[in-house]
Structures are given as structure tokens and as C-alpha cells.
């Protein structure tokens, strides 16, 4: 997994409308990027709703929030509409971005091993350098904790 001090990789994602964009396009301002396993599941929904609830505070700090999963853009659009989400949802369907950030990991559930996205958040500086990493995120209170770090910049 990428660590504090690493420069983010040059990666391309699709937004919920299927339009390509890069994280590089956000250079010049801080950015929060969070990885979540699957849209419209309980933990991922709570996390997206928590970031959305604090969207005004993130905007006031001038920091966009992007949630990344391997879901198809159409599913992300439906997810955002269903819950009124205002954070940017991005599709990494091929998994290249998850691989580059180190969030595509082996997981275990009831003794069964499988590959999946580790819930993780990255606070990225205006120069593209990672300022802070939250690995293995627990959803409750997380969006508020990240906001506190953003406001401390």
C-alpha cells in the first residue's frame, strides 16, 4: 500500500457517467481519495453517506472527495441517485488504480481466502504527495476524522 510521502501514480478512472478523468487533474489542491469494496452494501453506503453529510465542510476547505471501487459506472450512478450522494464516485473496473495504491489485497472470510478492496483513505497534498493514509478503515466516525486532518492543513 502506498504510504505517507509517496507520490500518487498517474491513473485514469471513470466517473459515474462513464467519462474518463485522472487524479492528476486535481493537482494544485489537496484531495481525499477513499477506496471501498462495493457500492450499495451497508458499510460502503454508510461511508459514502458520511462523506456526503460533510461535503459542505470539505468544500469549504477546498478539498474534493473521491470514492473509488471496482463497480461499473452505471452502478455508481444508481448508487449516488438512490442515496443522494454528492461525493465523486469513480470506477476502477479493471482494478489498475487499486493495484497502484495497494488496496487490492487478499482477504479472508470464514476461512475462505479471496481478493478484494481493502477499505483505505488517502489524504493527498496539492503537489500529489500522500500526506496521510488510513488503512483498514472502520466506517464509524471516519469521515469526521479525515475532515479534521483536512482542516488541520
TrEMBL record:
Pfam families: AhpC-TSA (PF00578). Thiol-specific peroxidase that catalyzes the reduction of hydrogen peroxide and organic hydroperoxides to water and alcohols, respectively. Plays a role in cell protection against oxidative stress by detoxifying peroxides and as sensor of hydrogen peroxide-mediated signaling events. The keyword Disulfide bond applies. Keywords: Antioxidant, Disulfide bond, Oxidoreductase, Peroxidase, Redox-active center. This is thioredoxin-dependent peroxiredoxin. CDD domains: PRX_BCP. It comes from the Bacteria. Belongs to the peroxiredoxin family. BCP/PrxQ subfamily. InterPro entries: AhpC/TSA, Peroxiredoxin_BCP/PrxQ, Thioredoxin-like_sf, Thioredoxin_domain. It comes from Sphingobium cyanobacteriorum. One of its GO terms (molecular function) is thioredoxin-dependent peroxiredoxin activity.
Amino acid at each position: 500500500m502506498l504510504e505517507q510521502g509517496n507520490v500518487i501514480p498517474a491513473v485514469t478512472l471513470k466517473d459515474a457517467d462513464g467519462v474518463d478523468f485522472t487524479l492528476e487533474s486535481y493537482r494544485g489542491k489537496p484531495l481525499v481519495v477513499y477506496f471501498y469494496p462495493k457500492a450499495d452494501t451497508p458499510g460502503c453506503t454508510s461511508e459514502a453517506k458520511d462523506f456526503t453529510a460533510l461535503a459542505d465542510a470539505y468544500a469549504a476547505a477546498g478539498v474534493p472527495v473521491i470514492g473509488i471501487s471496482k463497480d461499473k459506472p452505471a452502478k455508481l450512478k444508481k448508487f449516488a441517485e438512490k442515496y443522494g450522494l454528492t461525493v465523486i464516485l469513480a470506477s476502477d473496473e479493471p482494478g489498475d488504480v487499486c493495484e497502484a495504491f495497494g488496496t487490492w489485497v487478499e482477504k479472508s472470510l470464514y476461512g475462505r481466502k479471496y481478493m478484494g478492496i481493502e477499505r483505505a483513505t488517502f489524504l493527498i497534498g496539492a503537489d500529489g504527495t500522500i500526506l496521510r493514509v488510513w488503512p483498514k478503515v472502520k466506517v464509524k466516525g471516519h469521515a469526521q476524522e479525515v475532515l479534521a486532518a483536512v482542516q488541520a492543513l
